[in-house]
Amino acid sequence: MEQFIDNLPPMDLMRSEKMTFVQLIIPAESAHRAISYLGELGLLQFRDLNADKSPFQRTFVNQVKRCAEMSRKLRFFKDQISKAGLMSSSLTVLQPDIDLEDLEIQLAEHEHELIEMNSNSDKLRQSYNELLEFKIVLEKACGFLVSSHGRVVSEGRELQENVYSNDAYVETASLLEQEMRPQSSNSSGLRFISGIICKSKLLRFERMLFRATRGNMLFNQAPADERIMDPVSSEMIEKTVFVVFFSGEQARTKILKICEAFGANCYPVPEDISKQRQITREVSSRLTDLEATLEAGIRHRNKALTSVADHLAKWMNMVRREKAVYDTLNMLNFDVTKKCLVGEGWCPLFAKAQMQEALQRATFDSNSQVGIIFHPMDAVESPPTYFRTNTFTSPYQEIVDAYGVARYQEANPAVYTTIIFPFLFAVMFGDWGHGICLLLGALVLIARENKLSTQKLGSFMEMLFGGRYVLLLMAIFSIYCGLIYNEFFSVPFHIFGASAYKCRDTTCRDAHTIGLVKYQDPYPFGVDPSWRGSRSELPFLNSMKMKMSILFGVAHMNLGIILSYFNARFFGSSLDIRYQFVPQMIFLNSLFGYLSLLIIVKWCTGSQADLYHVMIYMFLSPTDNLGENQLFWGQRPLQIVLLLWAVIAVPWMLFPKPFILKKLHTERFQGRSYGILNTSEVDLEAEPDSAREHHHEEFNFSEVFVHQMIHAIEFVLGSVSNTASYLRLWALSLAHSELSTVFYEKVLLLAWGYDNLVIRLIGLTVFAFATAFILLMMESLSAFLHALRLHWVEFQNKFYHGDGYKFKPFSFASLTEDDD
CB 3.0-4.6 Å disulfide test: which of 21, 202, 450, 814 passes with 379? Predict the structure, then answer.
């Protein structure tokens, strides 16, 4: 048997890749190229040899700063391109290779040019906005002034002091100074201030004016016909023109301060209509010129941004790579005297030849006279865990890694999760109508795989797309389990032939009270459709699904214990095989394996035995006669033997291993006065789960014994609680079925009973929404989480330590925008 197991071919996912610890001695002139080639290969995880140094004390800190500054400039260009509504080209424009120094100069020139263009554009935009606001104020304020001209304003009296809040009117000052020069006026004369303010601030502005002047003012307003662009946010803002009539110098000072506080722009408006028209013509002429200038500036700016956008992706990728290379070089020791860099790290054993070839190429391309030394070393710490996955297996590996990364070379649960996880989900979600809906969704994601993989998705869609193959298998198994349960949106179908039951009479009036009569062989596949709606439907389905859940649970836990055997055999721990695996198998199967046997025998024989009674009195009165609860000959002595085995298995798990470990430790170090060296040989000799595994200076028997006692108690109690935990398969399957039945009967059939098209459409809509959001989304999420718990707790705790760490190689392929 052992020879057969040893000759089995290895599985890629069953054990993590074999790792080796290597040392690199790289000449300084070829260091950059060597690290770049290793980054392209992506199979070496460097160890930080300068962990005691701060980032500012490292050798290549200046180069990292330069790369960070270039990244900032490129992000600035990207933001500007996005604001301008331009698309950065995904296609790389043919361009001769550029080194980092030339790129740094080029980026500085582009940034200076763009900042200057933005500054000029902002000034022009501000002038344009002011002139546009002035024009709007002139147009709207004239109406207020004309209406009040005959009543309160004389022709010879104008505004005594014009209000200029901006410098944009310096060029028009000649006309305004000539036509609107302050005249001598009585301080008690009626005056006015006109301006424009954001519509959202208008109500508060008016209230403040009213309170400040104590009601001694007249406030007129009119909405602006055009929206004004905010130069900061580039949003179009609605504004309102206002004219405030007041009297007195003190009121004028208060109003001006309030206008300044609320960000209102005040503009001078002459009372003479001819002067108003003349200023309006001048402002319109300047607006036309500014529009042309702005459009020309935008065209020039967009042209410059387009030239940058053509190379932006390539430049960002180049700077990102350079920064990653220098960050990695900072993890190496720099020997000034020998002019070389010393690095250490982990790499898979299969990648040694590829790495040596890449390093030789780096030496040749950098014209170095000295080659790069690459040699393996011994390491004390445990190697990282690395599994080679593909698009199908990676989501299942992520499910396992979310619980904990596998210990180095430990049996990987993802191999079995690939099939068992979607199957357990389907046991709880079984309905082939709902399964078809999930299947269609999975097929859409798979069909659009190439397109969606290049797009930036939201968090939910990204999770859904990443697990598209998990969704596919869950859908397929849901269809299979739905056919077993014979449920299509809770409706049974005669897919595999006629029912094995018929009514007692032709009218079938007593079918739900007295029951049906079996008249032919059982239904060939799945649940007979006649059970649906019968008086014994719920007891039958409950019994079937509950017993089925126990069978699945016991088989699943047995698989976990068997994997612990393969782990112990792989690591050469005979103690774990003899004093953990064997008693655990005996204890679990003496109780719950026997219960599974009783379930199968009862199904096969059609016995009416009460299994609750059998299991309870197996402990309370093992020697009593079983009577009508006896399922097979020799059942009572078998129960006594199994009970004795279960009792013996508990001390078998608890006592032998700690005492044997103590004896081995005493024999190994008898007569030695020195302590244990922390070498790899001692680590290899250490037993898993023992106190010596982590290089303790002395063997602590009490700690080992307590540790073993905890494991034994946890397994004994866990065998009961874990088996009961698998009953969630029955509970969720029943809940899903009953909820689906309620929506079908109480919504769809109830609405279909009315001879009204509107009521039928409403019922169909409610049924569709309930199916989509409650049954397909909430119920599927619930079943997913419960299947996840069964894998993490009930299955993986039998063999899986999950205390390793992931292999994270230096790779350009894993760089993202967040690394800028």
Answer: 21
